[in-house]
Amino acid sequence: MxxxxxxxxxxxxxxxxxxxxxKFTPGKQSPTRGLAGLVSIMQRLRGPKGCPWxxxxxxxxxxxxxxxEAYEVIDAVDAKSPEMxxxxxGDLLFQIVFMCQLAKEKWDFDIEDVINAxxxxxxxxxxxxxxxxxxxxxxxxxxxxxxxxxxxxxxxxNKGYLSDIPEYLPAxxxxxxxxxxxxQVGFDWxxxxxxxxxxxxxMAEFKAALKKKNTQRMEEEFGDLIFSLANVGRFIEINPEExxxxxxxxxxxxxxxxxxxxxxxxxxxxxxxxxEMEKLWNEAKAKEKKRLHR
Length: 294
Hints:
Helices cover 68% and strands 0% of the residues. By secondary structure, the protein is an all-alpha fold. It has 4 domains: 34-122, MazG-like (Helix Hairpins, Orthogonal Bundle); 125-155, no CATH class; 171-238, MazG-like (Helix Hairpins); 241-292.
Protein backbone atom coordinates (compact mmCIF):
# COMPACT_ATOMS: atom_id res chain seq x y z
CA MET A 1 0.00 0.00 0.00
CA UNK A 2 1.31 3.43 -0.89
CA UNK A 3 0.99 6.04 1.81
CA UNK A 4 2.80 9.21 2.75
CA UNK A 5 4.93 9.65 5.85
CA UNK A 6 4.61 5.97 6.75
CA UNK A 7 7.43 3.52 7.48
CA UNK A 8 7.91 0.61 5.09
CA UNK A 9 5.54 -2.34 5.42
CA UNK A 10 6.28 -5.47 7.36
CA UNK A 11 6.55 -8.37 4.94
CA UNK A 12 6.79 -12.15 4.92
CA UNK A 13 5.01 -12.75 8.22
CA UNK A 14 3.10 -16.01 8.44
CA UNK A 15 0.18 -16.79 10.73
CA UNK A 16 0.40 -19.63 13.25
CA UNK A 17 -2.27 -20.88 15.66
CA UNK A 18 -2.65 -18.40 18.48
CA UNK A 19 -0.96 -19.74 21.58
CA UNK A 20 -0.36 -17.73 24.73
CA UNK A 21 1.09 -14.46 23.39
CA UNK A 22 4.51 -13.63 24.76
CA LYS A 23 5.05 -10.18 26.17
CA PHE A 24 7.63 -8.19 24.22
CA THR A 25 10.92 -7.64 26.02
CA PRO A 26 12.59 -4.31 25.12
CA GLY A 27 15.95 -4.81 23.48
CA LYS A 28 15.09 -8.15 21.86
CA GLN A 29 16.16 -7.99 18.22
CA SER A 30 14.56 -11.25 17.02
CA PRO A 31 10.97 -11.50 18.25
CA THR A 32 9.00 -14.71 17.87
CA ARG A 33 7.76 -15.34 14.35
CA GLY A 34 4.13 -15.77 13.43
CA LEU A 35 1.24 -13.94 15.06
CA ALA A 36 2.98 -13.60 18.41
CA GLY A 37 5.95 -11.99 16.67
CA LEU A 38 3.73 -9.50 14.87
CA VAL A 39 2.06 -8.57 18.16
CA SER A 40 5.50 -8.11 19.73
CA ILE A 41 6.53 -5.77 16.92
CA MET A 42 3.34 -3.77 17.38
CA GLN A 43 4.00 -3.45 21.12
CA ARG A 44 7.46 -2.16 20.38
CA LEU A 45 6.24 0.33 17.77
CA ARG A 46 3.78 1.72 20.33
CA GLY A 47 6.30 1.62 23.19
CA PRO A 48 8.22 4.56 24.74
CA LYS A 49 11.12 4.10 22.30
CA GLY A 50 8.94 3.12 19.37
CA CYS A 51 7.84 4.83 16.17
CA PRO A 52 6.49 8.40 16.56
CA TRP A 53 3.97 7.87 13.74
CA UNK A 54 2.61 4.63 15.19
CA UNK A 55 2.38 6.14 18.67
CA UNK A 56 0.21 8.99 17.34
CA UNK A 57 -2.42 6.75 15.76
CA UNK A 58 -5.99 6.30 17.02
CA UNK A 59 -8.88 4.03 16.06
CA UNK A 60 -10.28 6.83 13.90
CA UNK A 61 -7.00 7.55 12.11
CA UNK A 62 -6.59 3.87 11.19
CA UNK A 63 -10.00 3.57 9.50
CA UNK A 64 -8.78 4.63 6.01
CA UNK A 65 -5.90 2.14 6.21
CA UNK A 66 -8.19 -0.73 7.21
CA UNK A 67 -10.51 0.03 4.28
CA UNK A 68 -7.64 0.43 1.81
CA GLU A 69 -5.95 -2.81 2.89
CA ALA A 70 -9.25 -4.72 2.59
CA TYR A 71 -9.67 -3.49 -0.99
CA GLU A 72 -6.06 -4.38 -1.79
CA VAL A 73 -6.84 -7.94 -0.69
CA ILE A 74 -9.67 -7.91 -3.26
CA ASP A 75 -7.24 -6.65 -5.92
CA ALA A 76 -4.88 -9.51 -5.06
CA VAL A 77 -7.68 -12.06 -5.41
CA ASP A 78 -8.64 -10.59 -8.78
CA ALA A 79 -5.00 -10.70 -9.88
CA LYS A 80 -4.86 -14.42 -8.94
CA SER A 81 -1.42 -13.80 -7.45
CA PRO A 82 -0.55 -15.96 -4.40
CA GLU A 83 2.42 -13.75 -3.50
CA MET A 84 0.38 -10.57 -3.77
CA UNK A 85 -2.44 -12.11 -1.74
CA UNK A 86 -0.03 -13.27 0.97
CA UNK A 87 1.39 -9.77 1.28
CA UNK A 88 -1.97 -7.99 1.29
CA UNK A 89 -3.48 -10.38 3.83
CA GLY A 90 -0.46 -9.65 6.03
CA ASP A 91 -1.03 -5.91 5.64
CA LEU A 92 -4.69 -6.30 6.62
CA LEU A 93 -3.72 -8.48 9.58
CA PHE A 94 -1.27 -5.80 10.69
CA GLN A 95 -4.11 -3.28 10.87
CA ILE A 96 -6.12 -5.70 13.03
CA VAL A 97 -3.14 -6.22 15.32
CA PHE A 98 -2.66 -2.43 15.45
CA MET A 99 -6.28 -1.87 16.56
CA CYS A 100 -6.04 -4.68 19.09
CA GLN A 101 -2.98 -3.01 20.61
CA LEU A 102 -4.90 0.28 20.90
CA ALA A 103 -7.75 -1.64 22.53
CA LYS A 104 -5.38 -3.25 25.00
CA GLU A 105 -4.04 0.16 25.97
CA LYS A 106 -7.48 1.74 26.27
CA TRP A 107 -10.03 -0.96 27.12
CA ASP A 108 -8.06 -3.95 28.39
CA PHE A 109 -8.78 -6.47 25.63
CA ASP A 110 -6.26 -7.78 23.12
CA ILE A 111 -5.83 -9.96 20.05
CA GLU A 112 -6.41 -13.15 22.05
CA ASP A 113 -9.78 -11.84 23.25
CA VAL A 114 -10.71 -10.97 19.66
CA ILE A 115 -9.74 -14.43 18.40
CA ASN A 116 -11.58 -16.16 21.25
CA ALA A 117 -14.72 -14.08 20.62
CA UNK A 118 -14.61 -15.02 16.94
CA UNK A 119 -14.06 -18.69 17.79
CA UNK A 120 -17.04 -18.69 20.17
CA UNK A 121 -19.26 -16.91 17.62
CA UNK A 122 -18.41 -19.34 14.81
CA UNK A 123 -19.03 -22.32 17.10
CA UNK A 124 -22.37 -20.85 18.18
CA UNK A 125 -23.47 -20.09 14.62
CA UNK A 126 -22.61 -23.57 13.29
CA UNK A 127 -24.77 -25.82 15.49
CA UNK A 128 -25.03 -28.24 12.56
CA UNK A 129 -21.28 -28.82 12.90
CA UNK A 130 -20.63 -28.37 16.62
CA UNK A 131 -24.09 -29.29 17.94
CA UNK A 132 -27.04 -31.51 17.14
CA UNK A 133 -28.89 -29.31 14.61
CA UNK A 134 -29.55 -31.03 11.27
CA UNK A 135 -29.35 -29.19 7.93
CA UNK A 136 -29.51 -30.44 4.34
CA UNK A 137 -28.58 -27.46 2.17
CA UNK A 138 -26.62 -24.22 2.30
CA UNK A 139 -29.98 -22.38 2.33
CA UNK A 140 -30.84 -24.17 5.58
CA UNK A 141 -27.49 -23.03 6.97
CA UNK A 142 -28.21 -19.40 6.06
CA UNK A 143 -31.66 -19.55 7.69
CA UNK A 144 -30.18 -20.89 10.92
CA UNK A 145 -27.40 -18.30 10.74
CA UNK A 146 -29.92 -15.46 10.34
CA UNK A 147 -32.04 -16.76 13.22
CA UNK A 148 -29.08 -17.13 15.59
CA UNK A 149 -27.69 -13.74 14.59
CA UNK A 150 -31.07 -12.12 15.22
CA UNK A 151 -31.27 -13.76 18.66
CA UNK A 152 -27.81 -12.41 19.47
CA UNK A 153 -28.84 -8.95 18.33
CA UNK A 154 -32.00 -8.99 20.44
CA UNK A 155 -29.95 -9.92 23.50
CA UNK A 156 -27.85 -6.80 22.91
CA UNK A 157 -30.96 -4.59 22.72
CA ASN A 158 -30.18 -3.26 19.25
CA LYS A 159 -32.55 -0.69 17.72
CA GLY A 160 -34.01 -2.81 14.94
CA TYR A 161 -33.71 -5.81 12.65
CA LEU A 162 -31.50 -3.98 10.14
CA SER A 163 -29.51 -1.96 12.68
CA ASP A 164 -26.51 -4.31 12.71
CA ILE A 165 -25.66 -3.61 9.06
CA PRO A 166 -22.56 -1.37 9.14
CA GLU A 167 -23.35 2.30 8.51
CA TYR A 168 -20.31 2.97 6.36
CA LEU A 169 -20.47 0.08 3.92
CA PRO A 170 -20.24 1.11 0.25
CA ALA A 171 -23.77 2.07 -0.77
CA UNK A 172 -24.34 -0.70 -3.33
CA UNK A 173 -23.05 -3.37 -0.96
CA UNK A 174 -25.23 -1.97 1.82
CA UNK A 175 -28.29 -2.02 -0.47
CA UNK A 176 -27.53 -5.68 -1.23
CA UNK A 177 -27.24 -6.56 2.45
CA UNK A 178 -30.34 -4.60 3.48
CA UNK A 179 -32.59 -6.23 0.86
CA UNK A 180 -31.09 -9.66 1.47
CA UNK A 181 -31.68 -9.46 5.20
CA UNK A 182 -35.22 -8.15 4.71
CA UNK A 183 -35.93 -11.07 2.36
CA GLN A 184 -34.89 -13.56 5.06
CA VAL A 185 -38.01 -12.64 7.06
CA GLY A 186 -40.32 -12.80 4.04
CA PHE A 187 -40.18 -9.16 2.89
CA ASP A 188 -39.51 -9.98 -0.75
CA TRP A 189 -40.96 -10.25 -4.25
CA UNK A 190 -42.43 -13.53 -5.45
CA UNK A 191 -40.66 -13.53 -8.81
CA UNK A 192 -38.22 -11.57 -10.95
CA UNK A 193 -41.01 -10.05 -13.07
CA UNK A 194 -42.25 -8.13 -10.05
CA UNK A 195 -38.75 -6.78 -9.43
CA UNK A 196 -38.50 -5.55 -13.03
CA UNK A 197 -41.91 -3.90 -12.69
CA UNK A 198 -40.49 -1.96 -9.75
CA UNK A 199 -37.46 -0.95 -11.84
CA UNK A 200 -39.78 0.30 -14.60
CA UNK A 201 -41.83 2.23 -12.03
CA UNK A 202 -38.73 3.89 -10.56
CA MET A 203 -37.39 4.73 -14.03
CA ALA A 204 -40.68 6.44 -14.92
CA GLU A 205 -40.61 8.44 -11.67
CA PHE A 206 -37.00 9.47 -12.30
CA LYS A 207 -37.82 10.65 -15.84
CA ALA A 208 -40.76 12.65 -14.48
CA ALA A 209 -38.50 14.34 -11.91
CA LEU A 210 -35.94 15.00 -14.64
CA LYS A 211 -38.54 16.83 -16.74
CA LYS A 212 -39.43 19.06 -13.80
CA LYS A 213 -35.72 19.77 -13.17
CA ASN A 214 -36.21 19.39 -9.43
CA THR A 215 -32.72 18.57 -8.15
CA GLN A 216 -33.79 17.12 -4.81
CA ARG A 217 -36.49 15.01 -6.39
CA MET A 218 -34.12 13.82 -9.13
CA GLU A 219 -31.63 12.68 -6.50
CA GLU A 220 -34.32 10.80 -4.57
CA GLU A 221 -35.70 9.07 -7.64
CA PHE A 222 -32.25 8.28 -8.99
CA GLY A 223 -31.44 6.65 -5.63
CA ASP A 224 -34.68 4.66 -5.78
CA LEU A 225 -33.81 3.48 -9.29
CA ILE A 226 -30.33 2.31 -8.25
CA PHE A 227 -31.78 0.60 -5.18
CA SER A 228 -34.32 -1.26 -7.33
CA LEU A 229 -31.52 -2.42 -9.67
CA ALA A 230 -29.52 -3.58 -6.67
CA ASN A 231 -32.59 -5.59 -5.67
CA VAL A 232 -32.59 -7.23 -9.10
CA GLY A 233 -29.00 -8.32 -8.49
CA ARG A 234 -29.83 -9.67 -5.06
CA PHE A 235 -32.86 -11.55 -6.41
CA ILE A 236 -30.74 -13.37 -9.01
CA GLU A 237 -27.83 -13.82 -6.55
CA ILE A 238 -25.49 -11.26 -8.14
CA ASN A 239 -23.77 -8.87 -5.76
CA PRO A 240 -24.22 -5.39 -7.34
CA GLU A 241 -21.06 -4.07 -5.68
CA GLU A 242 -18.99 -6.84 -7.27
CA UNK A 243 -20.75 -6.47 -10.62
CA UNK A 244 -20.09 -2.71 -10.75
CA UNK A 245 -16.50 -3.11 -9.53
CA UNK A 246 -15.78 -5.55 -12.36
CA UNK A 247 -17.47 -3.25 -14.88
CA UNK A 248 -15.29 -0.36 -13.73
CA UNK A 249 -12.24 -2.60 -14.09
CA UNK A 250 -13.22 -3.44 -17.68
CA UNK A 251 -13.77 0.23 -18.46
CA UNK A 252 -10.31 1.15 -17.14
CA UNK A 253 -8.60 -1.66 -19.09
CA UNK A 254 -10.33 -0.67 -22.33
CA UNK A 255 -9.63 3.00 -21.80
CA UNK A 256 -5.94 2.27 -21.24
CA UNK A 257 -5.94 0.18 -24.43
CA UNK A 258 -7.29 3.20 -26.31
CA UNK A 259 -4.66 5.42 -24.70
CA UNK A 260 -1.81 3.01 -25.52
CA UNK A 261 -2.90 2.51 -29.14
CA UNK A 262 -3.17 6.26 -29.68
CA UNK A 263 0.29 6.71 -28.18
CA UNK A 264 1.68 4.23 -30.73
CA UNK A 265 0.38 6.59 -33.41
CA UNK A 266 1.90 9.59 -31.69
CA UNK A 267 -1.43 10.89 -30.49
CA UNK A 268 -2.74 11.94 -27.08
CA UNK A 269 -6.28 11.34 -25.80
CA UNK A 270 -7.26 14.98 -26.16
CA UNK A 271 -6.11 15.05 -29.80
CA UNK A 272 -8.10 12.03 -30.97
CA UNK A 273 -11.62 12.11 -32.39
CA UNK A 274 -14.53 10.36 -30.73
CA UNK A 275 -14.85 8.11 -33.78
CA GLU A 276 -11.21 7.05 -33.51
CA MET A 277 -11.47 6.37 -29.79
CA GLU A 278 -14.69 4.41 -30.22
CA LYS A 279 -13.05 2.22 -32.88
CA LEU A 280 -10.16 1.40 -30.54
CA TRP A 281 -12.63 0.83 -27.69
CA ASN A 282 -14.47 -1.77 -29.75
CA GLU A 283 -11.13 -3.40 -30.60
CA ALA A 284 -10.34 -3.71 -26.89
CA LYS A 285 -13.79 -5.14 -26.22
CA ALA A 286 -13.44 -7.70 -29.02
CA LYS A 287 -10.01 -8.80 -27.75
CA GLU A 288 -11.38 -9.27 -24.23
CA LYS A 289 -14.21 -11.44 -25.52
CA LYS A 290 -11.75 -13.49 -27.59
CA ARG A 291 -9.59 -14.13 -24.53
CA LEU A 292 -12.64 -15.20 -22.51
CA HIS A 293 -13.71 -17.75 -25.11
CA ARG A 294 -10.35 -19.43 -25.54
